């Protein structure tokens, strides 16, 4: 009984990603903790006006889960510079991102 499904006398070649792009690991939102993240995000932004609250929550969740931690921090800095959030809220959002993100 053979151990591997290959022709005899052929060298072993590891599988190569032939899609053209390497899987780059980046720090993103931990998908096992999304409910906790959303709950804490709601608590942080509850004092903001209704007109910007939903947009900030949706955008931040989307960026953190799909693009990455660094892009989400840039987004928070951008909305802070626009004057939509204050310094205290910005620090809380940075802390929330660092608590609920992992390398994947």
Task: Please tell me about this protein's structure.
There is one protein chain. The chain is mostly helical and 104 residues long. It has a domain at 34-103. Helices cover 54% and strands 6% of the residues. It has four helices and two strands; from the N terminus they run βααααβ. It has helices at residues 34-45, 50-67, 69-81, 87-99, and strands spanning 27-29, 101-103. It has a two-stranded antiparallel ribbon. The protein is elongated and about 70 Å long.
Query: Going across the major beta sheet, what is the strand order?
Result: 1-2
Oligomer: single chain
Low-confidence stretches: none
Mean pLDDT: 87
Along the chain, the helix and strand elements come as EHHHHE
Give a count of the beta strands, DSSP E runs of length 2 or more: 2
- Class derived from helix and strand content: mainly alpha
Question: What gyration radius follows from the Cα positions, in whole Å?
Answer: 21 Å
Report the sheet-strand fraction: 5-15%
How many individual helices? 4
DSSP helix fraction: 40-55%
Q: Largest sheet at a glance?
A: 2 strands, antiparallel
How far do the termini sit from each other? 39 Å
Shape by Cα distribution: elongated
Q: What key phrases describe this protein's structure?
A:
104 residues; mainly alpha; two-stranded antiparallel sheet; 4 helices; 2 strands
């Amino acid at each position: 009984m053979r151990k591997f499904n290959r022709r005899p006398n052929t060298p072993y070649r590891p599988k190569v990603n032939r899609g053209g792009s390497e899987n780059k690991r980046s720090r993103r939102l931990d998908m096992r903790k999304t409910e906790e993240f959303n709950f804490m995000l709601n608590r942080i932004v509850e004092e903001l006006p209704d007109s910007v609250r939903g947009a900030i929550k949706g955008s931040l969740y989307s960026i953190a889960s799909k693009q990455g931690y660094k892009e989400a921090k840039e987004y928070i800095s951008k909305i802070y510079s626009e004057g939509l959030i204050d310094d205290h809220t910005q620090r809380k959002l940075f802390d929330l991102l660092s608590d609920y993100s992992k390398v994947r």
